[in-house]
Amino acid sequence: MPFRRYVVAAGAAVVLGSTAACATETPPAPASTAAPAPAPVTGQAPAVIPGDSGGVTTVQAEKLCSDMAAQLQSWRTYTPTIGKGGLNTVVGTWAAQNGVNMIDLVAHKARIDVITSAQCPDVREGAMYALEIPDLASGLIGF
Length: 143
Known about the structure:
The chain has 143 residues and is mainly α.
């Protein structure tokens, strides 16, 4: 039994020693001589889409529009049923990435129409045509 105690003690010493060695052998990071560039100050918050958009900014709306525009061709290629699934994926992913309250968005699906009508009516029209729906809200289901 005493032999096991020595083995355990030696093992612990090796682990502690190697940890300490790693900590002391790491060279310090070189100090940067250049000061970081200051962030541009605009003094204004991003513009919010007018109407019942749920407070979505134009920057967020542009992202939704570009995400939808990237999918238009596949929505034209596949059946409207499959395309509607794609619409839900695009809107759900966009909402998650942009901090949009998804529960509120599900309760107010027409906000997607308000946002896209204001920001990218051509993309909205193309999506409605490809998915054979009267408005984007009718193509959305719960996320």
